[in-house]
Specification:
Strand content: 15-25%
Radius of gyration: 20 Å
CATH architecture: 3-Layer(aba) Sandwich
CATH topology: Rossmann fold
Largest sheet: 7 strands, mixed
Structural class: alpha/beta
Strand order of the largest sheet: 5-4-3-6-7-13-12
Amino acid sequence: MSTRRRSPRPPADHIRANRDDWDRESDAYDRRYRRVLSGPRALAWGLWRVPEARLRLLGPVRGRRILEVGCGAGRWALALRRRGARVVGIDLSRAQLAHARREAGRRPLPLVRGNAERLPFGDARFDTLFADWGAFTFADPVRTIPEAARVLRDGGRLVFATASPLRIVATERRRYRLVRRLIRPYFGLSRVRWGTGIEFHLPYGEWIRLFRSSGFEVEALIETRPDAGARSAYLSAPDDRWARSWPAECLWALRRAPRAAPRARSARRAARSASGRAHR
């Protein structure tokens, strides 16, 4: 698969911070969550591991060119490859990619160390991009969403899980716990620091404006509500109870709209120019 040469640029502070954070925490994270991310739960979404077989957000995968953006230990990517997909994983963290190489064993998975804000791939290279609490949480969406649109073919899918903005505005920062009141403003929500890591979260309206301006159509927004009796390995018991009344996470399913042909774009620019002259 060809890549697009990108001019080198020093990483932004959030990229450095999250790279260092994941390199430092990767082994402990893998030990703690390996069980809930492996086996039949590898192909499952979010905090409660909702099966892809139930949601069907990715669509058919056999023969499809798929990029996992923030692949971590690569268990999603490896499970998709077993179903016939042509999968590439990209991650910022060397430690996370080392876990992915060990998981792949004797049949290496195509893995790239890179930044989701500057994807090292040519235009229209993939049928599907996805992330399960991956790069679309830890990188700036103002850059990652247009990059996803660039490397997707027309009609391609972008699917990702991340936090609900309601979770962010109701999280007490000092104790990192969910409360039944609003802690921070909803409007203007963007960059959020938790300890040594930095995340990005937008209000719903800002997400939709960004999707549309980048060439995406929204097919689904799923605000995850856990089944009765389900527990998340990622949440404390009080936070898990909170999430039964308000959404803690959301899953976005988007479709890449067809790109306008160069001649059509030129015609639209000429029409706008002529309209502007007519009204002077």
